[in-house]
Request: fold
Amino acid sequence: MPTLTNKVALITGGSRGIGAAIAQRLAANGADVAITYARDAQAAAAVVTAIESTGQRALAVQADAADTEAVAAAVNKTAATFGHIDVLVNNAGTAFPRLFEEATLEEMDRVIDINFHGVLVAAQAALKHMPDNGRIISIGSCLGERDMTPGMTAYAATKGAFRMFTQGLAREVGSRGITVNNVQPGPIDTDLNPAAAEWAAPQLANTALHRYGHVEEVASLVAFVASPEASYITGANLTVDGGTNA
Reply:
């Protein structure tokens, strides 16, 4: 049964991978969906087409998550197009796998700008257009709890920051019935982290289920957290990692 009828969702970084799966799942659950994308307009258009094929309205807005003005403008355009924003999914993210002492300041700045600064800007802008009982969902990482992967120190630090952001904001907006939660995937088979890549073996070995996850498995959890059934879950860090952190 559709659980998001008459709702509007905005997914940052929604043109591929986990973001695209979330966008299409929320549309299947009845939401009109806007996505942002950084460069690949063709991929974004394909997601829009897939959403519209379900009978829902869709919008794609180009906005690099590191560009604060572009992020705020994308949020405002979504609200202007659909009237409001009920669900914000902070999905846009990046990583530069490199040992910390070898990483450049430019690389670390970009990881921070996209993974965390962009989340702050999007959430603050979205709250101005969000009615009571809305949802703010961030896509963190199991590395935000426990980093066992050399070369991911700066990335893990940004994802760890999601935890306190989630808890703090949940208390600030709880009186409005808005929930704030952090979904933490483990190794998920995407073009950025393919299960067939040479660096997949140690990630696979860390899972209890001995396999990579699928984007649909993350999207399913996000769809639940976005639904009315999850109205008493807030300030939570929900891990979907195949037992990586078990």
In short: The two ends are 33 Å apart (CA to CA). The first helix runs from residue 17 to 28. The chain has one domain: 8-238.
